[in-house]
Specification:
By secondary structure, the protein is of the alpha+beta class. The protein is built from four helices and five strands. It has helices at about 15-25, 30, 60-75, 100-115, and strands spanning about 5-10, 35-40, 50-55, 85, 95. It has a single domain, classed as Alpha-Beta Plaits, CATH 3.30.70.
C-alpha cells in the first residue's frame, strides 16, 4: 500500500520548496521505496500560492525520514520556513525544526494511515 504525502512551505515559498525537493530527492532514506514529484497545487486545491512536494512512499520509514531530512536541510540555511506535512489526507502537521516530537507525530500519522487502509 502506498502512502501519499503532501509537503508545502508554511510561508508559501516556491524557491525554498524546490530546494527542499532537490534535497529530499538526494536523501537516500527518503528516495528509497518512494517517488517524489512537484506540482502547483495540492489535491484539495488548498495550496494555490506555491508548489507542493508529493511523496508516494511504500514504507512508513520513508515518510518519517522526511522530518530528519528537513532538519538536516534546515541546518544548512541561515533561515528556513517551516513545512506542512499531510499524510494520506489527514490533519496537517507543522514541522519547524525536525525535532524528535515532530518525527514522532509524522511517523504516527503514517502508521495510522497505513493501518486505516
Amino acid at each position: 500500500m502506498t502512502l501519499n504525502v503532501q509537503i508545502t512551505m508554511a510561508d508559501g515559498s516556491s524557491a525554498d520548496l524546490l530546494d527542499l525537493y532537490r534535497w529530499l530527492a538526494d536523501t537516500r532514506s527518503v528516495a528509497t521505496n518512494s517517488s517524489l514529484g512537484v506540482s502547483t497545487s495540492s489535491e484539495d486545491g488548498m495550496a494555490s500560492a506555491g508548489n507542493v512536494i508529493g511523496l508516494a512512499a511504500d514504507e512508513v520509514s520513508s515518510v518519517s525520514a522526511v522530518v530528519q531530512a528537513y532538519g538536516a536541510w534546515r541546518e544548512t540555511r541561515t533561515s528556513a520556513p517551516a513545512i506542512t506535512v499531510v499524510v494520506a489526507g489527514g490533519a496537517p502537521l507543522t514541522v519547524a525544526t525536525g525535532s524528535e516530537a515532530e518525527f514522532d507525530a509524522v511517523t504516527e500519522a503514517a502508521e495510522a494511515a497505513r493501518g486505516a487502509r
